[in-house]
Amino acid sequence: MTPHHRGASPTAPWSIGLASALVPGLGQVLNREWVKGIALAVVAALAVAVELTTGHYADIGEYTPRTHGGFFVRGLWGLVTLGTQPRAMTVAGLSAGDHSIILMINGIFAVLVLSLLLALAVWAVRDAAKTRRRFLETGERVAVRAWARDARQRSFPYLVLAPTVVLLLFVTALPVAFGILIAFTDYSKDNLPPMQLVEWVGLANFRQLLGAGAWGATFFGVLGWTIAWAALATATTYVFGFLQAVLVSSRRVRFPRVWRSIFFLPWAVPAMISALVFRSMFNGQFGPISQALVDWGMTSERVMWLTDPANPWLARIIALLVNLWLGFPYFMALVSGALTNISPSYYEAARIDGASAAQQVRYITLPIVLRATAPLIVLSFVANFNNFGVIYFLTQGGPANPDYRYAGSTDILITWLYKLTLDNGLYDIASVMSILIFVIVGSFSVWSLRRSKAFTDA
């Protein structure tokens, strides 16, 4: 006997799903899943209650989203318009009006909450239709306890991760969305709420930064140096760290632990402290290095290591050397660990075949170590791409470059971004910069890691 002949309702699954879409929880109630239906109805009622209690729907008058809307309606209105009435300074203080940035944040928050509610509604529709389909096929209803037990067994990882995902959605996604949206506005120190309203400007900031004017020249100039800096900083620290690890691990070196401890000292000192010390040492007016060169007769006058606009590569080389001092112990530690996993039989066979020490390093040590550390080299490149500390605390982006806008000759993208925001209040341009940095770094990281054998073999 079919389920229909046993008294089952002939209602189609799609109609039950449609009922749950029109009235939250109704599909579950029609399926006689009372607990799930009531729970979904309560969530929907709470969302409606939040909108009604935070709005002014009881006021008599012409309805507008700005004056009558609640959390969701006014949030969406504010996100779209960014306000329509700026505030003004009066004798009694600031007049009533809109704050564009607050409206944007509230709008993003409302969109995130609505996204969660929409995801729950989609799940409710699919669950109602799936339950009806199963009932029509088997004629059996699943008890609440059995459903909860089955859901707990099948979805336990998701249930555990759900609170973290929701927290990340509001703690991480909200600031990220806010930073991205600012790039499409005219938010800057010359247009600050609440006295002025921020407006959407579309891709105007992107065209300005990537155009042929001064902004474009600055961006592409700083980008070129940033890529060169990241590549050189990563290559020099890796090569020097590799050589130090190979030398210290040699059987001819006595007291290797002592040497490793000495070489790890630059890594133990905070990078900011080391950068400030080197900045004092290379000070062109009062630094001991310039004074020593003059005293020894090697130069006729003090060398402006970090501030000579006519010789910007002098400051760049100093920055690379300081970064080498700070960064090589990291790769030395990594390579030293990788060397312990190389079987001595490889070197023994190479010596029997007449290979020199240099050939053993080139054809045995280097390929094996590179394979083990390739993903870390990529991550180091990304870290150097955004290496704010060394550049800012050593040179502060100098020496000055008259062809650049708010940037110096040693500025990389992240230090330029810092200057645009905190020093000059150009939040719209800085937001465009942050998006471009993310696209560049993210694309390179994905491309490099996918090409890495260590990554694909994992």
Automatic annotation (TrEMBL):
Segments traversing the membrane: 37-58, 101-125, 158-184, 227-250, 262-282, 313-342, 363-383, 429-449
Domain ABC transmembrane type-1: 223-448
Membrane topology type: Multi-pass membrane protein
UniProt main location, coarse: membrane
CDD domains: TM_PBP2 (cd06261)
Highest taxon of source: Bacteria
InterPro entries: MetI-like, MetI-like_sf
PROSITE patterns: ABC_TM1
UniProt keyword list: Cell membrane, Membrane, Sugar transport, Transmembrane, Transmembrane helix, Transport
Compartments (UniProt record): Cell membrane
Gene3D superfamilies, per the entry: MetI-like (1.10.3720.10)
A Pfam cross-reference name: BPD_transp_1
Family, similarity comment: Belongs to the binding-protein-dependent transport system permease family. MalFG subfamily.
Described purpose of this protein according to its UniProt entry: Part of the ABC transporter complex MalEFGK involved in maltose/maltodextrin import. Probably responsible for the translocation of the substrate across the membrane.
Classification via PANTHER family: MALTOSE/MALTODEXTRIN TRANSPORT SYSTEM PERMEASE PROTEIN MALF, MALTOSE_MALTODEXTRIN TRANSPORT SYSTEM PERMEASE PROTEIN MALF
Protein name: Maltose/maltodextrin transport system permease protein
Source species of the chain: Microbacterium paludicola
